[in-house]
Design goal:
3% strand; CSN3; WH_DNA-bd_sf; 3 domains; nucleus; Arc Repressor Mutant, subunit A; signalosome; elongated
Length: 437
Amino acid sequence: RRGAQDMDIIISQIHTLSTNNDSDLKKLRDFLRHEQESLKANAHLIDQALQTLEPSQNTLGIAFLLTAQLNAAVFANQRNTFAYVGNYLKLADEQQAKKASVQINHVCKSYAQMAIDEGPQAMLRSLQPLRCAVEKLRPSAETLTPVHAEFLRVCLKAKAYHFAERILDQPIFDISLINNNCTQMTPQSFLSYFYYGALIRIGMKKYAQALQALLVVLTCPASCLSMIQADAFKKYVLVSLKCHGELQQLPVYASHIVMRYAKSPSYVLDIAEAFKQGDLAALQRTVEEKAQQIQADRNVGLVKQVVQSLQRHKLQTLTKTYLTLSLTEIAREIGMEEMRTAEVEELLFDMISAGEIRARIDQSTGNVFFEDDQDEMDVHMVAKMQDKLSQILDLAQRISAFEQEIVSSEAYIRKTAALEGDPRSVPAMGGYDFMDM
């Protein structure tokens, strides 16, 4: 009986303080924080309480109720709760959602896991609500939130790669931990977002963009190696071979922990060495010997593409040396049996169609004539270059603005003055500068 009375008081306060006034919403948030133990103890009453609230009008209050319910895992009907959360995320008021960002982040994480546990159909149904949550919680389109990673995780599991494209195409410039809307942003959330993004790009065969995302993971400052970074390095090596025909070295600003791991013996480095030597037999032998590890890392598909890429890379090299070769000679040069000319011809057609080489095949003689690349840029390429230049200029302006903001901030001035030995700028005993934390 006491539990029902406590819940009635909570519901009454949610109705009373769910207004457009920031002061009322702050009072409601403080009240609900104080009542978290009561909500936890009365989790079995939350299903009934939710029926008296409107998702769009009582967003903040519902966030606290759902958090308590999902933590306790007490549901009258789990599928009904799953459907309710999906509808709630779509209808939630943006202003109130930002006030309850910590709770909604937790709700989204539990909701994503419920979708994955339920299977493909549930995952597909959860994508729109999760994307709505991302768009409502972020203070700006350029700010990363914990829900970003949960959304991509479900997209990846459901193989709904194109659904993630709109979020992935948005550049990220802000992950400020002192921003009230990002209080749950952790290193794991940050790494997971870019790692999942890279896997989705690989699934879409956008390897250059996948490499960029993997580089963000690998260059994140670290005092100890994350499992995410370890796995990202293996995929970075394989995608680098697939995309560039060689292992691209990590930037000098990558942490020494990652650099040291990158030099330790592994099957990906063995594959990279065989690829560099152009030794198809050694490459295939390494793949066979390390098959168990490759499968455990879920890199079977990528490794197969790397093996195929070696033949393509060797064929590209031939275009720089020869003007004419027969199909039989090409087969021998790229490590295939000379009798398999039909496969060579199919590979040539594929590479010509993809724009990887310029060549023509004389069907009557079986000879292949390699042509020089055209130097002229078409209209599409000019437009693409102009777009890239515009992006570079925009990024340069952003960096300049960030630099100006930092050097003119009081905290930075006090910090640098203290380092230079100006006693007037050193905080008094007992004070602190947030940059020292």
